[in-house]
Amino acid sequence: MVSSQMQEPQRASGDKAAVDRLFLLDLSDDRVVSLNPDGSDRKVIVTECRYPDGIAVDVAAGHIYWTNMGNPAANDGSIERADLDGQNRVTIVARGGTFTPKQLQLEKKSGKLYWCDREGMRLMRANLDGSNIETLVDTSQGDPRPGPDATKWCVGVAIDVDGGKVYWTQKGPDNAGKGRLFRAGIEIPAGQTASDRADIEVLYDGLPEPIDLELDPTNRVMYWTDRGDPPRGNTVNRAPIDSDAKGRPAPEIVFTHLMEGIGIALDLKGDRMFITDFGGNVLSARLDGSDKKVLLVAQGNLTGIAYCEIS
């Protein structure tokens, strides 16, 4: 999910060093959990969510945001916000403002939240207060919502602000090898709509079941989890962002043996990734997949995860 990074804090006398923190979502118990990056100091900070899936952190404003999938058969998805300690909880996108919201990303420059709407078959965004909800991509091709065709289900999302692109996954049916990874411009081209925009590019197809996405914009690399069958599924993959269609390399698998991988968060400054899976594991590794660590096990069905530095 989102990797919220801050400038290295000043370490003058009396100043407090930045504190690393993870926030993750426990789908089985419908709650938001906060913990240290080594798995210690685990705290439940929000309860009674409605099938939470995607989470983003705004350190400067002191907020966490998360999506609630709700009932996938009903149009009752929502997005909530709270303080970093779970206090002052508010709903910013009311039930029905989105169908089944999945991964969530916060883009500070434009002050926007981006998310994928699975059964709604859309990529969407809104202001940080939930206003001005927009559909940027509509993959339904006239299908009713909830969408019956899993190849049209949008799940993971990532934003390349400097490159002017938005990336997303469409997972396909379970373990079907029909997953795809796409990109398009952040803005819909003039004279086009979310349903007929002509700038959509397929970067990878035939993937087992791609889920959440993260970008390393400096090194121009994208990372994603895949919860499909091994050997290519239940993995973390990475690939160059800027390779062209003719010379695009196959994805590199950097982490294996996940139990249905879902969430991923990058600590780019610290050269590490954090991963959650549906088996209840919280894991970490360096960005190249080395130095693998199991931080927590049997934590329920885990979905989204976010990393941040709090000063």
The neighbouring-strand order within the major sheet is 1-25-2-3-4
Q: Tally of extended strands?
A: 25
Structural class: mainly beta
Q: What is the average of the pLDDT values?
A: 93
**Strand percent estimate:** over 45%
Radius of gyration: 18 Å
Helical amount among residues, as a percent range? under 10%
Uncertain runs are 1-14
Shape from CA axes? globular
The H-and-E topology, N to C, reads as: EEEEEEEEEEEEEEEEEEEEEEEEE
Calculate the terminal CA-CA distance, rounded to whole Å: 20 Å
Major sheet size, sense and barrel closure = 5 strands, mixed
Q: Tally the helices: what do you get? A: 0
Question: What report would you give on this structure?
Answer:
- This protein is mainly β and 311 residues long.
- The chain is built from no helices and 25 strands.
- The strands form 6 sheets. Strands 1-25-2-3-4 form a 5-stranded mixed beta sheet, with no helix packed on it. Strands 5-6-7-8 form a 4-stranded antiparallel beta sheet, with no helix packed on it.
- It is globular, with a radius of gyration of 18 Å.
- The N terminus is likely disordered.
Q: What features would you highlight for this structure?
A:
single chain, 311 residues, mainly beta, five-stranded mixed β-sheet, four-stranded antiparallel β-sheet, 25 strands, 49% strand, disordered N terminus
